[in-house]
């Protein structure tokens, strides 16, 4: 039996002042003219709450780029949803934040690129480091709970200790240290982003020690580099299981990356209700549960633990979204990942293709 | 270590509400959503940073038959593990 979704990731816009080369937005960014209007987003939140959504992540791009963010947030909060602002911090002012708090903002997730200011600005493609420090101070002044999120890769993994200290200085309640997952922009830049085994091996103990030292003060969530692991990640805790993503143009996806699976029809809130899409659409039912699995997943004791890994990754690497995630050592396609690690972990870092609109 | 003298408090950023879709009390927090049974919901609503676990157990004994202090300790421990509640 299909359960109701708990979370809705609302990508309000793909516009963003940052150009991070690992951005989770698709390569083909939605243009401003194609963004849903205020009333449609509010209807989407109504339908989400009716369906069972309890958490709304207001994300992007940079959600502060939407002038109607306060109205959208107030609407989601008014429905009883927990509201999370996922932001770069650029564009956040004391006035804007006070207004959002007034309208029911529950939590802020702030991105940082590195602890080294020069490198952070290089990765973001914009001078944002100081503005992020200022944003963190505003969030703490407003007494909001703060999660700091840092995406890790070859160019910043050696600074992981510094990134942890930066999050402490910012007063974060939680720190997400997420090794890059290779979709969209990150896939394009994979050879420049893939860390070496030595880098990952050195980072592990730093994270462990920090977890112990900061226990009870700052929670650290470490997302592993899955290409280097033996088992795949339990992507989204299963396809169409807990959360859905609504893109700026109203496309509804099981995860932010799922538009890469070109063999599935695209659902959109302009044509169907969220309930129809969640329960009845071919797209959301395609890889739900375990019935769709083939061997080696079908008889695997881990099938309810990792759900066969990531459907987008399987599609990107093998052309078949129903294949076992090639990250898994049991996958017949695991050699693809080994080949990538062998060929792309190279001493010279290729040029980054910074995220841009076409 | 949680004991009868411990004073639990709902953490900042945690919101308790009722979800009509699931017909259940829920706690909402940055990491996710927790569905609560009736007893757990009654415990959470009393984690105000003033009442001790002993106080909460006494109050609940009036309301729910058969609720023991150890049950309350267990619920609080689970809420602490999920970062919903802090204990002084």
Overview of the molecule:
Chain A: One of its GO terms (biological process) is pyrroloquinoline quinone biosynthetic process. Chain A: Its EC number is 1.21.98.4. Chain A: This is PqqA peptide cyclase. The complex is a heterodimer of chains A (358) and B (88). Chain A is an alpha/beta fold and 358 residues long. The longest helix of chain A has 17 residues, at 197-213. Chain A has a ten-stranded mixed β-sheet. Chain A has a domain at 7-228: Aldolase class I (TIM Barrel, Alpha-Beta Barrel). The termini of chain A are far apart. In chain A, 35% of the residues lie in helices and 14% in strands. Chain A contains 14 helices and ten strands. Chain B is α+β, with helices and mostly antiparallel strands and 88 residues long. Helix content of chain B is 38%, strand content 25%. Chain B has three helices and five strands; from the N terminus they run ββββαααβ. In chain B, the strands form two sheets. Chain B has a three-stranded antiparallel β-sheet. A two-stranded antiparallel sheet of chain B has the order 1-5. In chain B, β2 (15-19) and β3 form a beta hairpin. In chain B, α2 crosses α3 (69-81). Chains A and B meet through loops of A and β2 and β3 of B.
Could you name the CATH topology of chain B?
Answer: Arc Repressor Mutant, subunit A
Classification by helices and strands of chain B: alpha+beta
- CATH homologous superfamily identity of chain B: Coenzyme PQQ synthesis protein D (PqqD)
Low-confidence residue ranges of chain B: none
Shape of chain A: globular
Q: Strand share of the residues of chain B?
A: 25-35%
What CATH architecture label of chain B applies? Orthogonal Bundle
Main β sheet profile of chain B: 3 strands, antiparallel
User: Distance N terminus to C terminus of chain A?
Assistant: 42 Å
User: What structural category do the secondary elements of chain A indicate?
Assistant: alpha/beta
Quaternary state of this entry equals heterodimer
- Total E-strand runs of chain A: 10
Tell me the name of the CATH class of chain B. Mainly Alpha
Strand order of the largest sheet of chain B: 2-3-4
Number of strands of chain B: 5
Summarize the main sheet of chain A: 10 strands, mixed
Fraction of residues in β-strands of chain A: 5-15%
CATH level 4 superfamily of the domain at 7-228 in chain A: Aldolase class I
SSE string of chain A, helices as H and strands as E: EHEHEHEHHEHEHHHEEEEHHHHH
